[in-house]
Each structure stands twice: as structure tokens, then as C-alpha cells.
TrEMBL record:
Pfam families: Abhydrolase_6. This is AB hydrolase-1 domain-containing protein. Gene3D superfamilies: alpha/beta hydrolase. InterPro entries: AB_hydrolase_1 (IPR000073), AB_hydrolase_fold (IPR029058), Carboxylesterase_BioH (IPR050228). Residues 99-316 form the AB hydrolase-1 domain. The lineage of its organism: Bacteria, Pseudomonadati, Bacteroidota, Flavobacteriia, Flavobacteriales. It comes from Salegentibacter flavus. CDD domains: Esterase_713_like-3.
Amino acid sequence: MILKTHIKPKTLSSPFKGILLLLSFLIFSCGVQHNDELIIEKQGSFTVGGTVKKSPGTFDPVEHGAFNPANQSTQGQTLHGDHATVLFQHPVNSRELPLVFWHGFGQSMRTWQTTPDGREGFQSIFLRKRFPVYLIDQPRRGLSGRSTEPTTISAGTDDQLWFGIFRLGLGTEFYEDVQFSKDPEALDQFFRQMTPDTGLLNIELNIDAVSALFNKIGPGVLVTHSHSGGQGWLTALENDNIKAIASYEPGSNFVFPEGEVPEAIPYLGGQLSARAVPMSDFEKLTEIPIIIYYGDYIPEEETQNPGKEQWRAALTMARKWTSIVNKHGGDVTLVPLPEIGMKGNTHFPMSDLNNQEVAEHLFEWLQEKALD
């Protein structure tokens, strides 16, 4: 793949035009096919949301201006934190509605970028389909690590725990037909994309930041994963610019109308509860198309495999939620990937070996709902 940044020639002086023409000649003289190019017209990054914390007193630039980690005064100073960081790219001839990608627990925007085994992720796949793409690092995570509240970051060894919870396999052994690369380097890259919270996890901060993003960019489609799935429903209750939601393996915070909340679903190691919201709020979710995806290795019955068990509960709750939303006039499509012939997907279908096929299904749904 060749990534080109498109800059309108009228903004360049003659020497720069000549350099661009030379570079273009060199690229095409190397035999690169036109359909392998990805031309970006506009890109950048910014922050949205956040708070400002201020210490009492007056800052003295002489007395307090020297950096001294052992004895640093905060008197009269501010801290800007709790914002989300957004990276965006617009391809040439882009479609009207952008896709906004929100990561899950312990993850960052890397979820949507290059796959652990080095292939294109959803970022590039959907740029090639001419969608403007916005990638989020939610507050107190990844590039948004500046928190206004302290926390303790653990250095506990837990790779194999997540190997099981993310349904790559059991212990250290991959499931036989898993769609995740079994190359040791891919697994090494996968473990290294985990990132901690740098402050207490605050769902309201996250919702406010993502809502601020939609206020800034206008109408778009929200694409969530895992932990951000439930936060996605809650954000849609706050912001009418979310015109549709695609959610990969939502695991918590399903919202039901007051009086129609199902009982908590027990699973090995815990239980999954739903949230109640007023019907007037809930009805907002009936006004937008929603699609939900789950991968493979999710049992229908209780099992002694804790990594699978919580996803059995999540899929069970998702079925109840789909039924309630559609009962009230909504448009929710629930897609367990094995039921449509896509076998072996993990908790990260966007990173699996068949991620192009997974993305194509979403693209066809976007077309069907006139969101393209």
C-alpha cells in the first residue's frame, strides 16, 4: 500500500510542485498499481471534551518556575486533562457520513489500525471505501493519558488471562480453527497493544468527550468495540448526531426502558446487569439503525471456561436487548458471525485473519441503510 497525502497544487509554490511531480513519477515507475494507492485529502488530530483542574494560590514564575520533581510546587497552576484524543483522515472524494471508531477496555485506537500480524485494519479498509475515519483514544487512555485524578497502575502479569477472555484460546493454546494469526510475533504485538487507564475509569467523562466529538464533526456513524458498546448506547441518548451504531461484541451497560429491565444474567465469576432509562430516552435508540456482531467460541449453555462464560452472558443479554428495541419499533440487527458462515472469530473480529470479510459485511449493511 502507498499512502498519499493530497495537497491542492494551488497552495504550493512552483519548486514544491516540481518535487511532487518527481515523486509521482518515481512511484509509478516502480510499477505500483493505481488501485493499491490510498490518497488522503485531509488529516490531523485534536482533542475534545476534558476538564481543567486548578490548585489554590498564585503561580510565581520565578519561585515556582524551575522544574524540580522532588519538590515541585503546584501553587496557582492548572492541569488540562480528561479529554479524548481524535485522529482523523478524509480520503479524496469522501462519502458524506464519517465513521467514528471507539476502542474497548484496555485498548486504544490501535484496535482499528494495523492488525497484530501486519495487515490493514478497519482504518485503512474503510478509507479505501471512501469513508472519512475518526479514531478515538478515550479519556485517561492511550494518547489521552493526562488525568485530573490519580490512580495506581498495576504491573501484574495477566497476558494469559486476556488471551482467554478475548477468546484466542485457553491458557496458552490457540483454539484449533481460530482466525487469529498463530505467528508468535503477531501474538507479541497483540499483547503490546494493551494500555492501562491513567486515572479512574469514568463512563460519564467518556460519554461527554465522544458526544463533544459528534458536536464538532456533525452527523456520523459510531463504531464501538466491547466496553465502548454500552457507552455507545448511552452517548446516542445524549447526541442526535449519531445516525447509526455498529457494535462489535458489546459486553455491558445495555439500556432497557424502566419497568422492562431483565434479571441479571449470572456467569462463572460474576453477573451481567442491565441499566434502566426512561422510555423517553430509550426511544431514541429506536430511531437509528443498529447492528451488533459477536464472534465464535461463545457457548449457548453454561461452561467451566471463564473466558467464554462472560460472552455467553453478553450474547444472551444482547438478544434480550435486540428484542426489546425492535419491539418498540427499532431497527437492530444481531449477527453472531458463525451463523452467517464466518467461523473462528475472536473478540477482535476487526483484527482477525478474515477482517476484510467482516468489514465487507458492515459495508453492505451501511449501504442497505443508506448510510454510505
